[in-house]
From TrEMBL:
Family (UniProt): Belongs to the glycosyl hydrolase 28 family.
EC number, UniProt record: 3.2.1.15
GO molecular function: polygalacturonase activity
Record-given protein name: endo-polygalacturonase
Organism: Capsicum annuum (Capsicum pepper)
Signal peptide: 1-22
Active site per the UniProt annotation: H285
Pfam families: Glyco_hydro_28
Single Gene Ontology BP annotation: cell wall organization
Alphabetized InterPro entries for the sequence: Glyco_hydro_28, Pectin_lyas_fold, Pectin_lyase_fold/virulence
Length: 452
């Protein structure tokens, strides 16, 4: 009898070890197959910044050419139009090596829509310590530039830094939005700050607030690092994305605190090698890839990492959103070490996204979504459906991996919704997501998600 018990115990130990070994092997195989692309990607962001951004290393050496907007005629009283003074200061700073374009503290500068073009001489620093405000009345805007307020383009190795504020004065724009009042015509509003067609850019310490629409746009650029930026606008302000990345590569966002009326961070077409670390998000619509594929367009996003984030009180947490009818792909995405607090849709993939006042037509083509990893994601869900994988029947989501996910519904039992999504459970997962393993659908009506 004793021998039997010993043999039984040894068998159990052997079984548990085998299961644990199998689990570890499965995880290793999965990572080798799906996420080996990240190996060199992570190394890129561990390089010494001085090696990548040579101008920053040299900024502290030698004399600097200080160009203060006040000496170029800016009043700095918040009511006088200081646009010309800024343009004159820019011409001076941009054309002279090792210049500092200075917006001094303790003053407020009213600036109309302006484009600050490069290329500029080496070693340019844009130091914003004061407040820059936009005209508050939409009637004061040039109809030829409705989508842009402050645009910096064709720059190389430039640093934006300081403790200043860029304020879009957006309240009248929000009131006129069709998302606030359906009787209003749907019109574009300006983006507060855009960095376009530039490379080796650093943005550090600035505060963006109350933008007319998107606060900070990185467009058609490469090698951009953003550190310690704050973004703030009311939770009901429409289309006020915090940081929007479009057609850009090798972008790092770190130690940013973002609260808006739309996506805290949005990553759209032709963007790759995007890394986000230590992000606070809330209020807003969460951290999003997309939307992609609108109007039957091609959408491609590849190699995205979010590592360490706290998302609080948002309508979505980690979201991938695509329109029906599009094409292209989203692949090689890693969300890890994320804490949720009272988030309505903590994990959501939505291939039926429809941000339209009219119903969207069902279509068979879709942006393909694959190789998405959720690891160490915990917290509370405001809704019962803590995880939604609403994917196309003709272009299913595949290779979705859940590893150590624990989401608890604030009221009731948390659930998982799957439609045409397959993947792997590679660790403790709550609520159970067996629908990913089984390839079975939960047959129920799925409400097309409309942006609010």
């Amino acid at each position: 009898m004793v021998k039997t018990k010993i043999i039984f115990i040894l068998f159990l130990v052997f079984l548990l070890e085998s299961l644990g070994s199998a689990y570890d092997d499965d995880k290793n195989i999965l990572e080798e197959i799906y996420f080996s692309e990240f190996d060199d990607f992570d190394d890129v962001y561990n390089e010494d910044e001085d090696e990548i951004f040579d101008v920053w290393r040299n900024n502290g050496r030698g004399n600097k050419n200080l160009v203060n907007v006040d000496t170029c005629g800016a009043a700095g009283d918040g009511t006088t139009d200081d646009t010309k003074a800024f343009e004159d200061a820019w011409k001076q700073a941009c054309s002279t090596r090792r210049s500092v374009f200075m917006v001094p503290s303790g003053r407020t500068y009213l600036i109309n829509a302006t484009k600050f073009d490069g290329p500029c001489a080496n070693g340019l620093t844009i130091q914003v310590d004061g407040t820059i405000v936009a005209p508050s009345d939409p009637e004061d805007w040039d109809p030829k530039s409705p989508k842009a307020w402050l645009v910096f383009s064709n720059l190389t190795a430039v640093t934006f830094q300081g403790n200043g504020i860029i304020d879009g004065s957006g309240s009248k724009w929000w009131a006129a939005s069709c998302k606030k009042n359906k009787s209003n015509a749907c019109k574009s509003a300006p983006r507060a700050l855009t960095i376009d067609s530039s490379s080796r850019i650093r943005v550090k310490g600035l505060t963006f607030q109350n933008s007319q629409q998107m606060h900070f746009v990185i467009s058609r650029s490469d090698s951009v690092r953003v550190n310690g930026v704050k973004v703030s606008s009311p939770g009901d302000s429409p289309n006020t994305d915090g940081i929007h990345i479009s057609e850009s590569t090798n972008v790092v966002l770190q130690d940013c605190k973002i609260g808006t009326g739309d996506d805290c961070i949005s990553i759209v077409n032709a963007s790759s090698n995007i890394k986000m670390k230590s992000i606070y998000c809330g209020p807003g619509h969460g951290i999003s890839i997309g939307s992609l594929g609108k109007d039957d367009s091609i959408g491609i996003v590849n190699r995205v990492v979010l590592d360490t984030a706290f998302i609080k009180g948002t309508s979505n947490g980690l979201r991938i959103k695509t329109w029906q009818g599009g094409s292209g792909y989203v692949r090689t995405v890693r969300f890890q070490n994320v804490q949720m607090d009272d988030v309505s849709n903590p994990i959501i993939i939505d291939q039926f996204y429809c941000d339209s006042q009219k119903p969207c037509q069902n279509q068979t083509s879709a942006v393909e979504i694959s190789q998405v990893l959720y690891r160490n994601v915990t917290g509370t869900s405001k809704s019962q459906k803590a995880m939604k994988f609403a994917c196309s029947d003709t272009v299913p989501c595949r290779d979705i991996t859940l590893d150590n996910v624990n989401l608890v519904a604030r009221d009731g039992t948390a659930e998982v919704y799957c439609n045409s999504a397959t993947g792997v459970i590679a660790g403790y997962v709550h609520p159970e997501a067996e629908c990913l393993n089984s390839n079975d659908k939960k047959i129920e009506e799925y409400d097309v998600h409309n942006e609010l």
